[in-house]
Design brief:
A: about 350 residues, Rossmann fold, 7-stranded mixed sheet, 12 helices, about 30% helix, B: 13 helices, 12 strands, globular, disordered N terminus, EC 3.6.3.- (chain A), ATP binding (chain A)
């Protein structure tokens, strides 16, 4: 599988958002580096999990990947074609292959449109996909695919629960049979039992349609459950990348280690309550990131070296697919005791 | 600090002693058979859907009681009824709420205002909307001291800075002059906690205090709450839908479903030997290590509409174990020491 060329290939992607100062002249006060040199690959039918704290650039990256926003620099190749350079009708055509599912199904559906109109809209925009006479049947099939009753197509979003609305949003995203879905926190707004239903839906759709996901979530357990590979982001950069097993069982970046240890285990254990590796403070401002390694201000292992030089994303020979950007990565011995 | 020493419940000069029913030996908070209903018509509060239907729980000093359940199960409305801040149209239609024996529902507004904030307080989920955006946070915390004590403005502001320091906000004196929007989500939640704990209340209700926060910040806030609780023996009611957070913080857990208590047990028992199919389903729906590649166990359907509750057990329509006898609502009954379940088939759940 790894020999096949990636269907989505991202190289050194950068997005800078100018921030204007106050006052009459509105001079540019600086630029917010929301995505700052990200490289990723996605293969057919696989799931890449993207994790990190709020403000790390996960959602900005999602908007770049789906061509909602344009990058400042870098390349996005979708099936070999430079998505970041396309314009007009060719961009519209390319967008069929990669779709975005949003976090909040209450805000992402127009309350004045029926479910049928919402799910049919992609066919109205991309007229060459299906003749008008087929639209109703196609909408019915899509609703069935995501586990909704096609008889409810005439209803409005407010008549559905949060989980059902997320199914409607997924049906709309699937209308043009995209090869890739970029899901931005698709289950964060849902209750745990509903969340499980939607996670299962994503898995079964992947089996049925061979679709690939970029699955963004701050919930590390959900990502562990659904993803094949994981990229951990911090302040606009990928700091660790590898298969789920590599990253979750043997984290190499101290940030990944801290994130994993912050996840509350759903098993009460009074002894463990005290023994957490806490991460102090908040993410620094992306307007003025720390010199060298961006994580050093919160890192228990930080040394002078970390302020002077930014560590490159580097994979050891023993684990060629498991890269981390750290001068002093966690060692397997230390990780072993954390497991015990 | 004198505020804490004069609060030893045995003290006759205790500030609560002037309220009728005060009993230092009674639980810090005791909710008994509480009922809340919404209006079915405007202008007639409490006449319609029953959203909290006979909920009882009690807390202990220095311990955490968690109330869990999905959206709409009535966990927040119970807390709001306890605080006397129900939304318009909702009304308590039965039961009692007692703070060290004092019946809060029987107090007039002025008496309640003297207890609320000082002896029982609340941390809300959304700190940004709970704080006033046009006042510096130090001023807002100082207001708590001025409303309940006879401190001068200057003394109150000094106390506010001390509180910000206690919730570990760096450079507290400078930060006291900042407005809510100048704080990150985690720091704002610390400000909320500073306000709630300012007067060393006996009971603090935290309604989803970490839901909007990142895991790392979430861990910091939960740790802070635990430390402050240990310092002052606060009785904490933690309302959450996150079974992971609850597992790490609670001594005792109340599981609510459709306005009722489905199960109640010490945390270890509830997670280790659940005795209600709903609790079991909540635990099974969590993705865990080793669940990769397998579908998660899913609870089908949705909770009942409070306007049209099912006959008998409210969980019956979604329950795999439901049988003939579930047409009569199962009462909450003891299934083990300190462990109660409202299920006819609890043995089948526990025995799995």
């Amino acid at each position: 599988m790894t020999d096949a060329p990636p269907i989505l290939d991202v190289r050194d992607l950068v997005k800078h958002v100018p921030v204007r100062g106050g006052g009459l002249l509105r001079r540019t006060a600086g630029s917010l580096r929301t995505v700052d040199g990200v490289s990723l690959e996605l293969r057919r039918g696989e799931t890449l999990g993207l994790v990190g704290e709020s403000g790390c650039g996960k959602s900005s990256l999602a908007r770049l990947l789906t061509a909602v926003d344009r990058p400042t620099s870098g390349e996005i190749r979708l099936f070999g074609e430079r998505l970041d350079q396309l314009r007009g009708s060719r961009l519209r055509a390319a967008r069929r292959h990669i779709k975005l599912v949003f976090q909040d199904p209450y805000a992402s559906l127009d309350p004045r449109m029926t479910v049928e109109a919402i799910v049919r809209e992609p066919f109205v925009i991309h007229r060459d996909v299906a003749p008008r006479a087929d639209h109703r049947r196609l909408v019915g099939e899509l609703l069935e695919l995501v586990g909704l009753n096609p008889d409810h197509a005439r209803r409005y979003p407010h008549q559905f629960s949060g989980g059902q609305r997320q199914r409607i949003a997924i049906a709309r995203a699937l209308a043009l049979r995209p090869e890739i879905l970029v899901c931005d926190e698709p289950v964060s707004a849902l209750d745990v039992s509903v969340q499980a239903q939607i996670v299962n839906l994503f898995s079964s759709l992947q089996k049925e349609l061979g679709i690939a996901y970029v699955f963004i979530a701050h919930d590390l357990s959900v990502v562990e459950h659904i993803a094949d590979r994981v990229a951990v982001m911090y302040l606009g950069r990928v700091v660790e990348q590898g298969t789920v097993e590599e990253v979750y069982d043997n984290p190499r970046h101290p940030y990944t280690g801290a994130l994993l240890s912050a996840v509350p285990d759903p098993v009460p254990d009074p002894a463990r309550r005290a023994a957490r590796v806490g991460l102090q403070g908040d993410v620094p401002s992306p307007l003025d990131p720390p010199s060298g390694c961006r994580f050093r201000t919160r890192c228990p292992r930080a040394a002078d070296e970390c302020a002077a030089h930014e560590p490159p994303l580097h994979a050891p020979a023993a684990e060629p697919g498991h890269a981390a950007a750290c001068h002093f990565p966690l060692q397997p011995a230390a990780r072993g005791t954390a497991e015990a | 600090m004198t505020a804490t020493t004069d609060k030893t419940p045995a003290d006759a000069g205790h500030p609560l002693a002037r309220f009728p029913g005060y009993d230092p030996a009674a639980p810090p908070l005791e909710v008994t058979d509480l009922r809340v209903a919404f209006a079915d018509r405007p202008g007639r509060p409490g006449s319609g859907s029953v959203v909290v239907d006979g909920v009882s729980y009690r807390t202990e000093a220095g311990r955490t009681l968690a109330v869990v359940g999905e959206s709409g199960c009535g966990k927040s409305l119970t807390a709001r009824a306890v605080m006397g801040i129900l939304p318009a149209g909702a009304q308590v239609t039965g039961g009692s709420v007692r703070l060290h024996g004092i019946d809060l529902l029987g107090l007039d507004r002025r008496a309640l205002a003297r207890i609320r904030g000082r002896h029982i307080s609340m941390v809300f989920q959304d700190a940004l909307s709970a704080l006033n955006p046009v006042l510096p946070v130090g001023f807002q915390i100082a207001e708590v001291f001025r409303a309940h004590g006879d401190l001068t403005r200057r003394q109150a502001e000094r106390q506010a800075v001390r509180m910000l320091d206690r919730v570990r906000i760096p450079e507290a004196a400078r930060r006291a002059g900042h407005y809510p929007h100048q704080f990150s989500g985690g720091m704002r939640q610390r400000v909320m906690i500073a306000m709630a704990l300012a007067l060393n209340p006996e009971v603090v209700i935290a309604d989803e205090p970490t839901t909007a926060l990142d895991v790392t910040v979430q861990a910091q806030i939960m740790e802070l709450l635990a430390d402050l609780q240990a310092e002052h023996s606060v009785s904490l009611v933690l309302i959450s839908h996150d079974m992971g957070i609850v597992a790490n913080a609670a001594d005792r857990v109340v599981v609510m479903y459709a306005g009722r208590v489905a199960e109640q047990a010490p945390a270890e028992d509830l997670y280790g030997r659940p005795a209600h199919p709903y609790t079991r389903a909540l635990l099974d729906a969590i993705p865990r290590r080793g669940s990769r590649g397998r579908p998660l166990n899913v609870l089908q359907g949705a909770p009942p509409d409070p306007a049209d509750p099912p006959q008998g057990c409210s969980f019956g329509p979604r329950c795999a174990l439901a049988g003939e006898n579930c047409r009569t609502a199962p009462p909450l009954h003891a299934v083990a020491p300190h462990h109660a379940s409202a299920c006819h088939h609890w043995k089948e759940v526990a025995g799995r």
